[in-house]
Design a protein that fits this description.
- This protein has 225 residues and is α/β, with parallel strands linked by helices.
- The chain contains eleven helices and six strands.
- Strands 3-2-1-4-5-6 form a six-stranded parallel β-sheet.
- The chain is globular and about 50 Å long.
Amino acid sequence: MKPELVIFDCDGILVDTETIANEVLSDFMKKIGLDFSPLECHHRFTGIAMDTIKEEAERLSGKKLPDDWAAQVRQADLVAFEAGIEPIPGILDVVAHLKAEGIPFCVGSSGRYEKMQMTLGSSGLWETFKDVLYSAQDCKMGKPAPDIFLYAAKGMGFKPEQCVVIEDSIAGIKAAKAAGMRVFNYTGDVNADIEQAKSLGATTFGHMSELPALLGLEALDQTTA
């Protein structure tokens, strides 16, 4: 069944930021005595808002962190992203396909607007998504709560059951399911937890060229996508 609205997560779905962001977060964690590798940061925190990560870091470390700790991490991310961010392979073809089919789309992200402007701008996707951005900074609770996806659907004028979500994180999958939306889990990252994603009810796929067919659209030619 074709969706009436496609909601994309941003980091790890539209732009390849997760590796850099987890390296930055790992450094911050080590400074407060939490010896988390980038890989462990990926499994623990991918898809979760930075303010929530700060709360968890305080709980795990037993330390009261500076009020601006989350802002410090975000700023370090932006500096790291200045070197350039690439779009996820195949996403440009997927977006073009949705446009051709007349299916609206938007972004529902844990990232703040300034971060999305940086990463989408650096990757050449800003003009495509600049008018359909929704951030969890506008919501009471971040993922895995459903707030961001319900907010995006309402902003675009659709009911939850009319929407599908494209996610790469476990927290995002949980948020989409809690919102009552179908969810497709992109597993192109080598660290993707495919079995957990499936156990949560997500449909998994390994390359963006597979997505249109899963959405009930004409399949993309995988030799050119």
